[in-house]
Amino acid sequence: MDFQSLAAIATTPSAAKTLQPLCQSMGASLWMPQSIANDSAQGYGESLKAHVAALWDTQEAIVFCLAAGAVVRLIAPLLQHKSTDPAVVVVDEAGKFVVSLCSGHTGGADKLTLLVAQLLGATPVLTGASSSLGLPAVDILGVPFGWQKGVGDWTKVSAIVARQDAVEVIQESGSTLWQQVFKFATSASPQAKVWITHRTPRGDDTLQVCWHPRVLWVGIGCERGTPKETITQAITQVCLANNLAENAIAGIATIDIKADEVGLIELCQERNLPLRTFTAKVLNSISVPNPSPVVAAEVGTPSVAEAAAMSAAQVDSLVVTKQIYKSQGAVTVAIAQAEREYTNRNGKLFLVGTGPGKLDQITPAAQNAISSADVVIGYELYIDLIKPLLQPQQIIEALPITQERQRAERAIELANWGLTVAVVSSGDSGIYGMAGLVMEQLQATGWDGKTPSIQVFPGITALQAAAARVGTPLMHDFCAISLSDLLTPWEAIEKRLTAAAQADFITALYNPKSQTRTQQFATACAIFLKYRNPNTPVAIVRSAYRDNEQIILTTLDKLLDTPVDMLTTVLIGNQSTRTHHNWMITPRGYLGFGDSD
Question: Which of 111, 183, 489, 543 has a CA positioned 20 to 30 A from the CA of residue 587?
Answer without folding.
Answer: 543
